[in-house]
Amino acid sequence: xxxxxxxxxxxxxxxxxxxxxxxxxxxxxxxxxxxxxxxxxxxxxxxxxxxxxxxxxxxxxxxxxxxxxxxxxxxxxxxxxxxxxxxxxxxxxxxxxxxxxxxxxxxxxxxxxxxxxxxxxxxxxxxxxxxxxxxxxxxxxxxxxxxxxxxxxxxxxxxxxxxxxxxxxxxxxxxxxxxxxxxxxxxxxxxxxxxxxxxxxxxxxxxxxxxxxxxxxxxxxxxxxxxxxxxxxxxxxxxxxxxxxxxxxxxxxxxxxxxxxxxxxxxxxxxxxxxxxxxxxxxxxxxxxxxxxxxxxxxxxxxxxxxxxxxxxxxxxxxxxxxxxxxxxxxxxxxxxxxxxxxxxxxxxxxxxxxxxxxxxxxxxxxxxxxxxxxxxxxxxxxxxxxxxxxx
Length: 392
Fold this sequence. Notes:
The longest helix has 40 residues, at 88-127. The chain is built from eleven helices and 16 strands. It is of the alpha/beta class.
């Protein structure tokens, strides 16, 4: 089997004319010279690639010029290459070769990006072993400030043991969601880092529906070590911020982090999803009687095998009729279903979704795992439909 390649060469032709072009176009398929309008001519043989077996052409790659008619005459705009084969075996061979070449080309283009993402995920796995996680929100929330104050700095204690007890670590979604809630415009300025990238119209629409959290009663479900509630309390002016978790160890660790980072105005308590006594106690946070919350938030609490039915029941018992539910979710190997989010949407008048960029690497070294996607999903639900049996 022999391979024959011929080259393409470009020749200046100052004497070309419309009539000459027309004449050369008519005989193009038989002539070795193809003239283009004005100064360019392309010369090639009838086939650029021939694969021969026993002296016979088996596979032939032929160039076919594509012309465009304009006011100045006809000009060639591109070359279309056609492949001719004599048998099914030859067609299979050429398809395999082309597929291999495409794979090699794509690998060469994407390999640096793949290695960078792998290194980032390995760093996040390594971060889970650290006792403290140091976060700096200054680059995101105050990029133009040269001498940033210490208010942007957080030192979060974590005690990660295994992926069966994930609440005792700092995860990327809580950091990213906190930044987006404090500064919604980050959705627009970081749009190029989201993949798949949402349109600017979708981003603008999503920013317009994000609630203002000043003077609002906020409860966080599954707070873990308390990063999200701590950031909202420091940079915004909410009426109440209640951080809750069903794990006693997580509640203790979150309380410790509030004291370490001057989060004394954040209340921390245990709330087991579906437990009416815990829900009633949460509704009394900062009040003498039960009062519903304006905003219910959660980050990375919809992973498998979380009790999502109890989570939905708890959300519906906590939020006001005109309140908001904001959830951040990251797809993983066992947590990529949209059933829970679709089910929750049936209880609200409006729901919104966007795929946003992961901002955690701009803040600090947070935890993660190898199966998680690069970005994050943010869901917003607004306008609760009154559940049966509930009186507002």
